[in-house]
Amino acid sequence: TGYITIDSGYKNTGATKSAITFLDGEEGILRYRGYSIEELAEKATFLEVAYLLIYGELPTQSQYENFEHEIRTHTLVNEDMRKIFEGFPVNAHPMGVLSSLVSAMSAFYPDSYDDKAPDSTETHIIRLMAKLPTIATWSFKKSQGHPVNYPKNDLDYCSNFLHMMFALPVEEYKVDPVVSKALNKLLILHADHEQNCSTSTVRLVGSSKANIYSSISAGICALWGPLHGGANQEVIEMLEDIKADGGDVAKYVDMAKNAKTSGFRLFGFGHRVYKNFDPRAKIIKKAADDVLAKLGVNDPVLEIAKGLEEAALHDEYFVSRRLYPNVDFYSGIIYRALGIPTNMFTVMFALGRLPGWIAQWKEMRENKEPIGRPRQIYTGATLRSFVPMSER
Ligand code: CMC
């Protein structure tokens, strides 16, 4: 069986070759299929980026129109899925609901688990892209006691999501282009990040030939954790706590320095790969300023975030460990300004990451990668004899 080396957390283990996303943690570089994240976030639509990630090239006009059209024709969700949804308690966390319903999709589309029907994969990809926003908005509507909105297919992808979230049957709802543009940018920034925890989960689950819905559902569960995508919710809750506590950022920096004893980490700080800065955080910080100004929102939490960043960046503990704000540090502040509630932040991350998960699942299948099956070094008892219960 050969020599086994342990690499806890896979800090130095490459699990696959991939042509999707390039990331240089020292230089703070992130590129999807060769295009810089800065340029994509500025110039592209989220669906263009999704197409790029999934199919490898930017779409031509007709490829784009076709992709968008396909997605539009699949935005409705089977009404029987609504019955499953209605069984959830009103305070169910939207991430638990999302992962369950995506998993349930495999039962609604049984050809997804028939590996002899690979032709249907394209349709499953479209279904996931089309239905995830619809499902995501249900939890919010239920939490408000409002009826769900059916998709409005003359709207673009981001505007349709906003419509399903915020339109009410009693008054006309017009999507604010500032809001829809900001959402487009955030989704692009989240769209892929090579072999992170949730993506590795999607690939590992998919490597057993599990269907695409189950694989993506597993990715959603992995993303939910507070050390991964769940950090965006934790950040806002932390900033709120600091505000309620008088805004003393230095106190929280001190607590985080003693993370080992206090158990408190600065959420939205630190990254496994980025050691000088997270290029996504740079873009988001600027976007937070722009969006809040354009929407005329004055959120005191933004000032606390900036103060906290400033204090941490001048602190030896954070400097020596090369801990910088990551993508989750400022994203919640923008989501909040867009009217999205805190417990939906990680759902927003999932909507953004979906094309990345799909692209990575597809690449893994096309490259015919073997089943993922790490080894271990056994540390338990050596052989011993069974002791009857009466003698234990
Ligand atoms: N606050 C205080 N100390 C920290 C923090 C933090 N946020 N992050 C890392 N450290 C310390 C850690 O205690 C350790 O110190 P020491 O060397 O004395 O043992 C050192 O920095 C290295 O940390 P690590 O936990 O070994 O690093 P890692 O690569 O295993 O973890 C991380 C990376 C992102 C999980 C971690 O930095 C963290 O927990 N950050 C807070 C949660 C967060 O913001 N997550 C979002 C990540 S980015 C987007 C995403 O993935 O969703």
UniProtKB/TrEMBL annotation:
Q: Name one GO cellular component term.
A: cytoplasm
Biological process (GO), any one:
tricarboxylic acid cycle
Active-site residue numbers: H271, D328
Signal sequence region: none
For the keyword Acyltransferase, the answer is yes
What reaction is this protein's catalytic activity? oxaloacetate + acetyl-CoA + H2O = citrate + CoA + H(+)
Keywords of this entry: Acyltransferase, Transferase, Tricarboxylic acid cycle
Q: What Pfam family is a match for this entry?
A: Citrate_synt
Q: Which domain of life is it from?
A: Bacteria
Q: What does the record give as its pathway?
A: Carbohydrate metabolism; tricarboxylic acid cycle; isocitrate from oxaloacetate: step 1/2
For molecular function, the Gene Ontology terms on record are:
citrate synthase activity
> Record's NCBIfam families?
cit_synth_I, PRK05614.1
Report the family membership.
Belongs to the citrate synthase family.
This chain's protein is named Citrate synthase
Taxonomic path: Bacteria, Pseudomonadati, Bacteroidota, Cytophagia, Cytophagales
- What gene name does this entry carry? gltA
